Amino acid sequence: MLIVGAGGFAKQLLPLIDRLDLSKQVVFFDDYSNDTTSLISRNFHVIRSEEELKQYFAHGDLRFVNAVGGPVNRLKIHQKMQGLGAEPISLIDPDSSISQYEVEIGTGCCILQQVVIEPGVSIGKGCLINLNSLLTHDVSIGDFSEISPSVTILGGAKIGHSTFVGAGAIILPKIEIGDNCVVGAGAVVNRSVPSGHRVVGVPAR
Which of 86, 150, 170, 195 has CB atoms 3.0–4.6 Å from 178's, for a disulfide? Predict the structure, then answer.
């Protein structure tokens, strides 16, 4: 199984890879950085070129996990890898708590440890839900959005596509945040945010 990316977020996935007992099955791909002294390079095989990547895929394992941060980068990686015929898969930490009632999680998501997802939540494809976040009932998150650590999203809130929510932010009930938005770390969002906007502060403006 291929992990795309060998930087900071890929390192966050290492405990999850161990918990799922995948450490002997994974290979990393990073044609952006040539850092051969990194933690990942010292412990795993890292593919460094697209030609080598195509050779890897030729052996038949077309699964990939998107291990880059940032909504724009996640979308680009998803499109690039699917263009090569690869298939996105999700990694969900067994230490997260996900309701069995009407929860939808799209393909290619990463959900890290101590995440709580309540009934009626919908998460689009390619999303990153980082550790210790809480998504209460009937929350909706669009494709390729990133939820940073310790975010709280309350009942009925809707987050659009390719939106970034910073660490510790709180989204109040039934708030709608559009596509391609940025919510700053620690913000408390108490009114809806149009697409393409950046908000910060308490309350967020």
Answer: 195
In the chain, how long is the greatest CA-to-CA distance? 53
Rounded to the nearest 5°, which phi and psi values hold at 17? -60, -40
Q: Cα 140–17–58 angle (5° rounding)?
A: 95
Q: For residue 188, what is the enclosing H or E element?
A: strand 188-189
The DSSP code sequence of 10-41 is: HHHHHHHHHHTT-TTT-EEE-SS---TTSHHH
CA 110, 113, 118 angle in degrees (round to 5)?
A: 80
Distance CA 131, CA 16 (A): 11
Q: Answer whether residue 36 shows pLDDT above 90.
A: no
pLDDT at 37 over 60: no
Q: Give per-residue pLDDT as tens, 43-69.
A: 899 999 989 999 999 988 899 999 999
Report the distance separating Cα 126 and Cα 11, nearest Å: 18
- Confidence band, pLDDT 50/70/90 cuts, at residue 79: very high
Q: Any idea which residues carry the catalytic annotation? A: 137
Distance CA 178, CA 53 (A): 35
What own/partner pairs with CB < 8 Å and gap ≥ 24 does 137-143 have?
Answer: 142/179, 143/75, 143/106
- Sequence-ordered alpha helix ranges (H) in 28-175: 39-43, 50-58, 71-83
Q: Are 176 and 194 in contact (CB under 8 A)?
A: no
